[in-house]
């Protein structure tokens, strides 16, 4: 962690918005494991309240240009 707070916190909220290539379940597990490891090293309690992981469908354009730069 590159930054430190000047004062202590009693609680907080962390939002992770990850867009990456790969199996969503593998990425989810990597994030959950990393957060747990950081919390353990820091001596804090972490709790996951909401998590989503998915692979979006390929984009399907509704319009295609037949000629570019007329």
Write structural notes for this entry.
- There is one protein chain.
- With 70 residues, the protein is mainly alpha-helical.
- The chain has a domain at 16-56.
- The chain is 27% helix and 0% strand.
- The chain is elongated.
- The chain starts with 23 loop residues before the first helix and ends in a 28-residue tail after the last helix.
- The model has no long low-confidence stretch (mean pLDDT 86).
Fraction of helical residues: 25-40%
In terms of per-residue confidence, which ranges show pLDDT below 50 for 5 or more consecutive residues? none
Work out the radius of gyration: 20 Å
Structural class: mainly alpha
End-to-end C-alpha gap? 52 Å
| Net shape | elongated
Quickly list its features.
mainly alpha, 0% strand, 70 residues, single chain, 27% helix, elongated, 1 helix
Summarize the helices and strands and which ones pair or pack.
Blueprint: H1 24-42
């Amino acid at each position: 962690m590159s930054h430190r707070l000047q004062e202590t916190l009693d609680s907080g909220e962390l939002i992770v918005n990850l867009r990456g290539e790969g199996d969503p379940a593998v990425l989810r597990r990597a994030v959950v494991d990393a957060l747990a490891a950081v919390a353990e090293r820091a001596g804090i309690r972490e709790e996951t309240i909401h998590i989503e992981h998915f692979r979006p469908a390929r984009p399907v354009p509704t319009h295609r240009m037949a000629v570019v730069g007329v």
